[in-house]
Write a structure and sequence with these properties.
Number of helices: 11
Radius of gyration: 20 Å
Bound molecules: adenosine monophosphate
Order of helices and strands: EHEEHEHHHEHEEHEEEEEHEEHHEHEE
Largest sheet: 9 strands, antiparallel
Structural class: alpha+beta
Length: about 350
């Protein structure tokens, strides 16, 4: 166990690292961020920061020497950086889990391998392979699909909507990566996610499934809890716990799922870290997802996931951040700003959680 007073290393410099550091500080831990940019959201609130490139092995070794345990705030941090730190200090979740979550094909193969339902998919590694796959799509009812880059994909980056009439070369160029995954388009009823925290002793706790609404492929609003038939909510939670166990994860895992029109659950994506759809837990639950991560990696007992309120979390994306002054004046709203100096379209600048009486 790492007792309060110890130092948690956070690889990555964004808002997830920032909120993890704030939760760690409340429990008396020190934090050290490893980030590629000065003055980022995490470095602003950590006790210390190393600013260096993720392939700077000397800097990674120095960082490892200054921390007791480390975690990764975002799964697209190069797995090699986490693996380097893991040579000398425990890194949780283990870098192999990052490697699975960084690659949509590996992720879907893993899910299929453990019997978890996903949308139909196939690997495509060239425009010619895409042309063949699109030809076969012609036989599929609806004929719609989504071409995604296998790696570095999040928030809809590297995604192209296609159908049997799509020109393969153009779609391949638009996707812009050497390896892709062609997924069947899911005409879903809604999108949900479940966040699970799991300790080194195998104990796991889950938050209720929440509904996620996206705008331009970026999470816009999370409604907690999701309005689902109780058996579907239970099944979503059981799937997420099962995946965390099969990954032998220590930390926090978000499992994003589609609920199909006939009520089935298909897993779309895994994120082995605190997730945007769990930000509501800071203000509405006994223990936030960030505190659970700190507890899990320090070997403390996991906290209660009990919620005292229902909640609606709204991301402040790009210029929406300018509404912060309205949110801060609302009695039941909790404003979180990430300290980003430059506002850009599509950039997550903060969020607001509005608390509602528990239903
Ligand atoms: P992702 O980057 O995979 O999380 O995708 C971002 C968003 O695009 C998802 O949350 C969905 O709203 C949409 N999307 C992704 N894949 C599919 C799919 N196979 N069918 C329908 N919508 C999708």
């Amino acid at each position: 166990m790492l007792a309060p007073g110890g130092t948690i290393g956070i690889i990555g410099g964004g808002q997830l690292g920032r909120m993890t550091a704030l939760a760690a500080a409340r429990l008396g831990y020190r934090t050290h961020a490893f980030a590629s940019e000065q003055d980022g959201p995490a470095a602003q609130v950590c006790t210390a920061a190393t600013i260096a490139a993720y392939d700077d092995t000397a800097a990674l070794d120095r960082f490892a020497g200054l921390v007791d345990v480390a975690t990764v705030e975002f799964e697209n941090i190069p797995a090699a950086a986490a693996a380097r730190v893991a040579v000398s200090k425990p890194v949780m979740p283990r870098p192999e889990i990052l490697e699975i979550a960084q690659d949509r094909l590996r992720e879907k193969d893993f899910l299929r391998g453990i019997g978890v339902a996903t949308t139909g998919y196939r690997e495509v590694s060239s425009a010619a392979a895409l042309r063949r796959a699109l030809g076969e799509l012609g036989k599929v009812p609806g004929r719609r699909a989504v071409l995604k880059s296998a790696r570095m994909g999040y928030d809809g980056k590297g995604q192209v909507a296609v159908d049997a009439g799509t020109e393969a070369d153009a779609a391949w160029r638009l996707m812009g990566a050497p390896r892709g995954i062609l997924e069947g388009f899911v005409d879903f009823r809604c999108e949900v996610s479940v966040i699970v925290a799991r300790g080194a002793d195998g104990a796991a706790v889950a938050y209720p499934a929440v509904e996620n609404r996206h705008a331009n492929h970026i999470l816009d609003t999370t409604i907690a809890p999701a309005s689902l038939p109780p058996e579907t909510a239970r099944e979503a939670e059981a799937i997420a716990r099962d995946i965390a166990t099969r990954l032998d994860l220590v930390g926090v895992l978000a499992v994003e799922m589609f609920v199909t029109r006939d009520g089935k659950l298909l897993v779309n994506e895994l994120a082995p870290r605190p997730h945007n759809s769990g930000h509501w837990t800071i203000d509405a639950c006994a223990t936030s997802q960030f505190e659970q991560l700190v507890r899990a990696i320090c070997g403390l007992p996991l906290g209660s996931t009990e919620r005292h309120s229902d909640a609606v979390m709204k991301n402040l994306i790009g210029d929406e951040v300018e509404t912060w002054c309205d949110a801060v004046a609302e009695p039941t709203a909790r404003l979180h700003l990430y300290g980003k100096r430059t506002t850009r379209a599509g950039r997550k600048m903060g969020h607001v959680t509005r608390l509602l009486p528990r239903g």
